[in-house]
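Sample intake sheet
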Amino acid sequence: MAVVKSGLDVQEVLDAVYNGIVAIDIQGRIILINKSAARVAGEQEEKLLGERIENVFPETGLLEILKTGQNQPHQKLKFRGRTLLSNRSPIYDRSGRLVGAIGVFQDISELEKVSQELREEKIFARELEEIIESSYDGIWITDGQGKTLHVNSAYERISGIRAEEVIGRHMQELVDQGYFSDSVTLHVLRKKERVTIMHDIIKTGKRVLITGNPIFNEKGEIERVVTNVRDITELNRLKQELEDKQRQAARYQNELAQLRSQRTDEDLVVESPQMRHIYDLATWVGQVDSTVLILGESGVGKEVIAQAIVRSSDRRDEPFIKVNCGAIPENLLESELFGYEKGSFTGADRKGKPGMFELANKGTLLLDEVAEIPSNLQVKLLRAIQEQEIMRVGGTRPIKLDVRIIAATNKDLEELVRRGEFREDLFYRLNVIPITVPPLRQRREDIPHLIDHFLRKYNEKYKQKKYISAPVVKRLAEYDWPGNVRELQNIVERMVVLTREEEIRLENIPPQIKTLVEKERQFHVDVSDVIPLKEALFQVEKKLIIKALQKYGTTRRAAEALGVDQSTVVRKFQRIRESGTDS
């Protein structure tokens, strides 16, 4: 056979090959290498010729070919973070003597990456299918035209329709053939938004709640519609079972309450986000000595928050003295707070007497109802807080003290400052760290837990085994509790004492609570008959003003919420009271 010669030499041919090619002699030196292989090695071809193969390609395996003389096809190797597929062969001369080895390799890093991504996609697809199958609700998936792609086994159970009956079929076709009374998928495709309908499945006679959700592609076109199917009949059955067990569950109410969140304080129930925030703040500021002002309506638990502050402080083992400034007569308040020297006034102890500030030395003093302190004492209180020293009544020398001050009030101190009834400098000295405890009506989720707490407390106190039915808890949670936690505590104690049966039912709720709850439910504008317009406006204003005062506690805040002047609220509320219809 004739050999056709051309102007190309062997190296030019090898350099044109995409795959890398490298050959070595019997001593392992490179005798041939093309551009593709040199590029992988990161050097020029000329510099690599004559180099030891293990210094350039340590993982080629060509030295092993020199030892075994055997072909090694389709071998993977790693080189500089890349994956190569190589075919390695021995080189023999015409006499059959082994004179070297050659390797041809291809960079398959990208192919490996694609292969790995494909494997991951398959795993994800399988997991997704398993998730869909594990759903207790029925799931129906169509494409963007309404053609059925997938139906899970839960849907088969709910509907009695087998997947093979509907896969590949259009939803309109299934409606036309009587499989369904309606199709939420068709509604979704028309409206291009989530749709929920009640649906009758004709084959089983079941009524189901179906929600269809569109899935959009990058162009904003519907690519899939995923429909969730829930059997309402079964849910109603489960609901009935729960209601049947409600009485039994109520009997275990006290026991279950002990397994709930651990009470952080003997009288403090921390369940709502608001109270959790307040408790966290109280325990945090307890670690410093800054003055704290606790604000809130009467009965919300301001003293309990003060106790939480003290228990988290370094002063927890020192005296904690509580003074109700509104319960002490004005003419005795100064001597009670600051003490007096012997002979200071008629009837005074002949030895003198230390005041509450001295008794609280090294510890904490709670000034409850601080807004009731008369103006003439506010100056002396300001000095005591600023200078940490007091002067007894009739005394001539100051007494240095180390007392942490906590003040509490149900009054709007800022409003009192504006009216000149409370010193501004004293307000700012007290208001270093304000903590506002919300009224019970603004944290209703605390009510069931407080009921549990007080029920256990009075069961233990009176050696009872009372439990409160769920309807009673629900009714009490609807009440606005103007007296807050203190009122709730009193009502629970009253029901425990007066109810003769173990179960506390709706009829055991005090009448005034039931009446007010019903009025709260009826708080809406009801035009049932034609009355004079002036009278109708008065009734609406009355309800709004009473509601605002109950919610915000002061006429100023109620006026801000209603968008009127404070004087307007005061005037109209006075008219309501005079009319005798403020209940």
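Comment: The mean pLDDT is 83. The domain at 273-436 is CATH 3.40.50.300 (Rossmann fold).
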